[in-house]
């Protein structure tokens, strides 16, 4: 094989592996930053022109998250245990991800609950670094008060309520198809 | 061959196997049976004694049809490459299953075998071994056999940690509270 082509091929394969590693790091960094309520560190996992509401940029996202954390519903403690990270790379320097999380959260008003969460992520490589390109789609399987069963809970309508059944798995089309009566 | 290639291939294999188990978990929870069975070798042995992906699809439809929501949270994943096309894995998981009025939580290990077919890493075998399978409101050590699953519903074998010879050596074979001996 032509040596130059060989090198390019190897570099491309190394790039892919580095992409997986860097992307795997993002939800972990998000979880660690949330655990220490370091919203500045958290926003470094996002592209610098991240949109939040009508605003753009990391500073705006940080301000929004810090404001959201004031008041009785502010997060006092968040233990985010991240797992099941599926990463699909595209050739154009973008990627999508599916991340599971089991969260234990305390709010300022004393509320303590667990959530089973799915994050739908989008990543992009900016100046050689992989980052979240938009705010993560945080969907619930359920939220529950410790000691309760999720089975008969009403819809949480997250983020309005912490506790209740979420939009998953019902929102998934394969789930609906599985439960269709056989034709 | 460039001497870097085998090193790259090792890393690519490990990454592909990590993605394989994550895709398996997501496809399970999404009830995406086509994707799920595509992650197994074409001649996969099915628990009911048959083999092949279409038989496995039927098996999964029955098995997963017994549950409401399922949630497969995966954790540490030990991967041992045997050769360029074979590997084994031990994967920790904390899956949850809605079974009628119960909400089951497993502390489990998947004992996996992987094979590379036409460049794609696939599952050839998976055994589920659990420390317990308890309702979310149970104390796992205070339920008989450390499982409150209806026996017909789940194939998990509740044989950890007794299954480990090192554990036996450290603690002896005597039954502890909630011993799973004779079950599974």
Structure notes:
The complex is a heterodimer of chains A (183) and B (184). Chain A is of the alpha+beta class and 183 residues long. Helix content of chain A is 31%, strand content 34%. Chain A has four helices and eight strands. In chain A, the strands form two sheets. In chain A, strands 3, 4, 5, 6, 7 and 8 form a six-stranded antiparallel β-sheet that branches. In chain A, strands 1-2 form a two-stranded antiparallel sheet. In chain A, a hairpin with a 2-residue loop joins strand 5 (112-126) and strand 6. The mean pLDDT of chain A is 94. Chain B is an alpha+beta fold and 184 residues long. Chain B has helices at residues 4-30, 33-38, 53-65, 165-171; strands at residues 70-83, 86-99, 102-117, 120-135. The N and C termini of chain B lie far apart (49 Å). Mean pLDDT of chain B is 91; it is low at 179-184.
* CA-based gyration radius of chain A: 19 Å
Basic shape of chain A: globular
Largest sheet of chain B: 4 strands, antiparallel
Q: Which quaternary structure do these chains form? A: heterodimer
How many β strands of chain A by DSSP?
8
């Amino acid at each position: 094989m032509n040596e130059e082509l060989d090198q390019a091929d190897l570099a491309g394969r190394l790039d892919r592996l580095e992409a997986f590693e860097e992307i795997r790091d993002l939800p972990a960094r998000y979880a660690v930053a949330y655990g220490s309520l370091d919203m500045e560190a958290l926003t470094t996992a996002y592209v610098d022109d991240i949109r939040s509401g009508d605003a753009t940029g990391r500073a705006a996202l940080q301000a929004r998250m810090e404001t959201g954390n004031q008041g009785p519903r502010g997060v006092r403690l968040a233990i985010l245990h991240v797992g099941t990270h599926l990463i699909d790379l595209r050739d154009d320097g973008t990627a999508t991800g599916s991340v599971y999380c089991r969260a234990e959260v305390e709010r300022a008003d004393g509320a303590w609950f667990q959530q089973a969460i799915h994050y739908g992520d989008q990543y992009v490589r900016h100046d050689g670094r992989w980052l979240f390109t938009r705010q993560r789609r945080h969907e619930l399987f359920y939220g529950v008060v410790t000691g309760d069963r999720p089975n008969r809970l009403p819809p949480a309508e997250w983020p309005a309520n912490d506790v209740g059944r979420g939009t998953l798995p019902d929102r998934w089309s394969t789930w609906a198809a599985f439960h269709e009566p056989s034709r | 061959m460039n001497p870097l290639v085998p090193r790259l291939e090792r890393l690519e294999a490990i990454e592909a196997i990590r993605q394989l188990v994550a895709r398996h978990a997501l496809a399970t929870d999404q009830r995406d049976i086509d994707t799920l069975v595509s992650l197994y070798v074409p001649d996969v042995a099915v628990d009911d004694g048959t083999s092949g992906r279409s038989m496995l699809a039927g098996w999964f439809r029955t098995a997963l049809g017994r549950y409401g929501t399922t949630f497969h949270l995966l954790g540490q994943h030990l991967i041992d490459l045997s050769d360029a096309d074979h590997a084994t894995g031990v994967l920790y998981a904390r899956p949850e299953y809605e079974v009628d009025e119960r909400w089951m939580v497993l502390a489990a290990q998947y004992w996996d075998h992987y094979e590379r077919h036409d460049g794609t890493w696939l599952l050839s075998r998976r055994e589920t071994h659990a420390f317990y399978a308890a309702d979310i409101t149970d104390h796992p050590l205070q339920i008989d056999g450390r499982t409150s699953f209806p026996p017909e519903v789940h194939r998990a074998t509740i044989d950890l940690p007794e299954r480990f010879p090192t554990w036996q050596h450290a603690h002896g074979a005597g039954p502890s509270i909630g011993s799973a001996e004779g079950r599974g």
